[in-house]
Automatic annotation (TrEMBL):
Ranges in a coiled coil: 388-422
Location of the Recombinase domain: 170-273
Domain Resolvase/invertase-type recombinase catalytic: 2-162
Superkingdom in the source lineage: Bacteria
Cited PROSITE patterns: RECOMBINASE_DNA_BIND, RECOMBINASES_3
Record protein name field: Recombinase family protein
InterPro entries: DNA_bind_recomb_sf (IPR038109), DNA_bind_recombinase_dom (IPR011109), Resolv_N (IPR006119), Resolvase-like_N_sf (IPR036162), SSR_resolvase (IPR050639)
Record's keyword terms, sorted: Coiled coil
An example molecular function term from Gene Ontology annotations: DNA binding
Organism of derivation: Microcella daejeonensis
């Protein structure tokens, strides 16, 4: 019998300050090391082989943060690769609605039971086991929600009183008295607001700051898009506690609230992905709002029925008071994952890569060399080794070289991703005009494993290439419309 072990410890599992003997004992028994040891002892006694130990260390299950080990656990359950899931308790698996719902449905569908450290089994596919699992998770979620609510209330009270000062090192504010401005930094920030409101891009302002040699407060070598973008989104700059609040006058404002809100609307409606931003979801940025056609971005929202935070996709162009589309992220991700696998399963001939022998690693190395050469040009200019004219000429040449490599790299990534998915499977399961149904189930599982093993960037490229995703307002799975753009025989219209 085979099992996968899942162990997790949240940062707030360890209390601060002086501890009683009981608290010290509880922390020791809850540690990752203790969980691994207890699971190993249980497996030995039961004659079970643990094929992998999945650990999320220091990550709250309630926060909704990405958990790599949890995602891997879901993969084992969906593929039915194990006989048991071993965990200290149900609350180790998830402590928010999105994760609880996902793993409960996956366990119920697969029939794989959870084995606790005392050896008890919980079969979520049964009525009693499902109820027991839901009750255990509801209690743990309630405990997490109470802790989170207490922290939020304490922070909210401090903010409303003006006692929640800017963190030390905040660009624009004085470290000695963080309610006061640093005049020259504040002037730069205000100018950036005015430029963005007038149509300038954040990236162009970043380039100007770097060319002028504007120093970063925390000692970074060069400004990046994300740095300035985050600064422009700070409500504090307008004297606000939160975007929908009123100015409180407890600290000096850099800009008027009207200008701040104008810039937020500009930033929210601009298309494209900021340089350096790394999406972690298949559908984020690819899904489109069925109302206005704008891209949808990942976010969190409060479930009004339960009062908890869940992951969603939200229309980037929606303004306050307007009703645009939104999506439950886990539901849409599962649907997109399923449709990509179907495309490779039934459209292998269409998706076989046309280019062979492309070395992605070599091209990435070339791209890194170009980026290093760009930095060298700036360094030579700063050291007065080259003139401004020579600097411009070299940068233009490097830009052309970079764009050429990036074009080849995108083609290679798509080609290699497709080859990775279909390698060894194509000749075995595909014959002209049909699919061998005897091997289809095994092939689907192998395709899912290979797709999950790809880098998120490659997975997202395949989604963009294969699917058109639209989300309409409303509730339930009926509002999600996924259309195949390559394997069109899978679309309902074609069927």
């Amino acid at each position: 019998m085979r099992a996968v072990l899942y162990a997790r410890v949240s940062k707030d599992d360890f209390s601060k300050g002086k501890k009683t003997r009981e608290e010290q004992a509880a922390e020791a028994s809850n540690s990752i090391q203790a969980q691994l040891a207890a699971a190993a002892e249980l497996a030995k006694a039961k004659g079970i082989t643990i094929i992998e130990e999945l650990v999320d260390d220091g990550i709250s299950g309630y926060s909704g943060k990405e958990r790599a080990a949890f995602n891997a656990l879901m993969g084992y359950i969906i593929r039915k690769d194990v006989d048991y899931v071993i965990a200290r308790a149900a609350d180790r698996l998830g402590r928010n609605d999105a994760d609880n719902s996902s793993i409960r449905m996956a366990l119920a569908d697969s029939g794989i039971p959870i084995m606790g450290f005392s050896g008890e089994l919980t079969d979520v596919s049964s009525a009693s086991g499902g109820l027991q699992f839901q009750m255990a998770q509801a209690v743990s979620q309630y405990q997490s929600a109470m802790k989170s609510e207490a922290v939020r209330n304490a922070v909210k009270l401090k903010r409303e009183k003006g006692e929640y000062q800017a963190p030390k090192g905040t660009f624009g504010y004085d470290d000695e008295d963080r309610s006061k401005l640093v005049p020259w930094e504040a002037d730069l920030i205000k100018e950036a607001y005015l430029l963005v409101a007038d149509g300038r891009t954040v990236g162009s302002i970043v380039r100007e700051w770097n060319e002028k040699g504007v120093p970063q407060r925390k000692g970074g070598a060069r400004w990046q898009y994300a740095h300035l973008n985050n600064i422009l989104k700070r409500p504090r700059n307008a004297g606000l506690v939160d975007p929908d609040g009123e100015p409180i006058g407890k600290w000096e404002a850099i800009v008027e609230p009207e200008l701040w809100h104008t810039v937020q609307q500009v930033l929210a409606t601009r298309k494209g992905t900021a340089p350096g931003f790394q999406p972690v979801h298949l559908s984020s940025g690819h899904a489109r709002c069925g109302v206005c056609g704008s891209s949808m971005r990942s976010n969190t929202a409060t479930d009004s029925r339960r009062g908890t935070r869940v992951k969603i996709l939200r229309c980037a162009a929606a303004k306050k008071g307007e009703r645009h589309a939104s999506a439950h992220l886990m539901d849409l991700e599962a649907l997109v994952h399923k449709e990509v696998i179907a495309a490779f399963l039934f459209g292998g001939d269409l998706l076989m890569p046309r280019h062979e022998g492309m070395d992605v690693d070599a091209m990435l190395t070339k791209l890194q060399r170009v980026q290093a050469d760009v930095q060298d040009v700036y360094d030579d200019f700063d050291a007065d080794l080259i003139t401004a004219a020579v600097k411009r000429e070299r940068l233009v040449q490097l830009k052309e070289r970079r764009e050429q490599i990036e074009e080849q790299l995108e083609e290679a990534r798509q080609s290699n991703a497709s080859a990775h998915m279909l390698l060894d499977l194509h000749r075995r399961i595909f014959t002209p005009g049909r699919v061998s149904l005897d091997d289809a189930v095994t092939a689907r599982q192998q395709l899912a494993e290979r797709f999950d093993a790809l880098h998120i960037e490659q997975r997202r490229m395949l989604v963009a290439k294969l699917l058109d995703i639209r989300v309409l307002p409303g509730r339930g799975l009926q509002k999600y419309f996924v259309t195949h753009t390559v394997v069109t025989s899978l679309n309902d219209e074609a069927a």
